[in-house]
Amino acid sequence: MSNRRSDLRRTLTGLGFLLPNILGFLAFTLVPLAMSFFIAFTDWDILRHNIFREEPLRFVGFENFTWLFTHPEFWHYLGNTFFLMLGLPFAIAGSLGAALLLTRVSRRPAALRGAMVLATLVLIGSLWVLRAGGMAEAGVWFVFGLLGATMLVGGVLTGGTIYRTLFYLPHFTAGVATFVLWKKLYNPQTGPINFALAPVLDAVAAVVQAMPRVFSVGVPLLSGVLAVLLATWQARRLRRHWDDAAAGPGAVGLGAALLVLPAGFLLHWLGLRGWLATLAAAVLAAGFTLATVRRPRPWGPVCARDAGVSAEIALGLGLVPLLLVLAAAVAHGAGLPAAVADGIEPPNWLGDYAWAKPAIMLMALWAAIGSNNMILYLAGLSNIPPELYEAADMDGASPMQRFWHITWPQLAPVTFFIFVMGVIHGLQGGFEMARIMTLGGPAGSTTTLSYFIYIEGFETGRLGYASAAAWVLFALVFVLSLLNFRFGNRNAND
Predict the structure, then answer these.
(1) Which CATH class is domain 40-108+349-494?
(2) Whole-number Å distance between alpha carbons of 316 and 311
């Protein structure tokens, strides 16, 4: 009996310590979720349902969802969200590159005392230059150069400690402060980015004007050759993976669809109607897929229908944007000399419809390279057994072979986790950037789903409609996460 009382006392004590957390979860997570789900099926509007008006709340069923899916702005903002997520593979590659560089630097012996002495001498010299130069522009630039050299040398001598701190600094900076800073940097009149780009663009325009024939013919021709080479490499890769049973019919079809997608845009840019360009691209993808899957495999291996799908998705995130750029160069390269006849003006980054999303993607890339992804890759690199590299060195493997056959496969679980979290963050993110930098403009080009939900819920007051959009976003995140775990987790474990 005493043992039961003692167990009950310990249980109640533990629940007492957990009670604040449980109450917080109920008050700020579970109850709001339940209320949001209920509100999504009502016509709750702050302007009509408040303490000053006694209009009854009406249950509308799926009317909010029907209105949402038939509203063209929803699909526009959904497209904006996915467009901004195109920077995810570049952010992952940048984080991995930073982690590899820091790992190489950290292998050098640390010499903190020598680094501090060197940094002190350089700072004293910098102060002397500022004093002697009277804070002239040349002196200031010289000081910045000396400080950069100090960071470089000090980072090597301290085993990469300074580098890691500098790379991770953007993660410590408050998001609002970062967005305000980049808004100033992107200012078309006084921003340092356009100030640095102006002479470079003038030089490029002068070169194009001096050799118009070379650029009007050379740019489309070179871009076309590169696009054909990339397409040929991808086609041969798909067929080789089919023969080796590394790719199933689903992967071959997806790879072919992603391959011909830029071709459809090229046909449309060259003057073909949109539906004809889409039909031509679909026929090319279907023809290549059928021709590939009907090829007899040399040894008759069997694989799952969806084998290799995750690899094609990951490759397509980098291959499709590159092919789209080459297709745009083929379609519009001939008019390049005429376009630069009056010079090339630096872009209005946040005020131009075509440049607003790329500007935000560049800022997000800068912040993502040194973020938690880099730390995760550093941890993953430190856990790779050194015996694998020693065996590769004994076999005469090159640095590139060491990376592709040892480093990259060993980092597959880390990459999978980063990719899943990046997809979730990409679908849910974009609110702070749009709110502070552009207010969703110009013309809604930077309005994401999260900012759209905020506008509908807290600016227009249509809480029922906003809740429906929020649950659609949840469903989208849930489905994509399931697909990632279904296809990506299996390959990561293999």
Answers:
(1) mainly alpha
(2) 8
